[in-house]
Specification:
Layout: H1 12-23, E1 28-34, E2 37-44, E3 48-52, H2 54-58, E4 65-67, E5 72-75, E6 78-82, E7 86-91
Antiparallel strand pairs: 1-2, 1-7, 2-3, 3-4, 4-5, 5-6
Length: 93
Amino acid sequence: MGNQDQKGTIDWDEINREIVAALGGPCVVQKIRWHGEDLLLIGRANTDGAIATRDQFENFECSTAHLMKDGRIRRFGLVVGQIGEIEFGELEE
């Protein structure tokens, strides 16, 4: 990635474009409910991404689980649920 100019300044716009391209779409934060708990999905809306509490998200901590593209929910490599168990809410601004 060539995201620094000659002065070492980081080109955040270029980094964002690379991330969006790698994800196949823009990364969003979406409110969800899973097993009765209010959580966030950080990734692609209604599709895949990290499942985390607000505190985990805001403090850059490890997520609770991960929604995979195939609809399985994994935690530490184990399947702990599926997409049908999630109630999808609004996107965060």
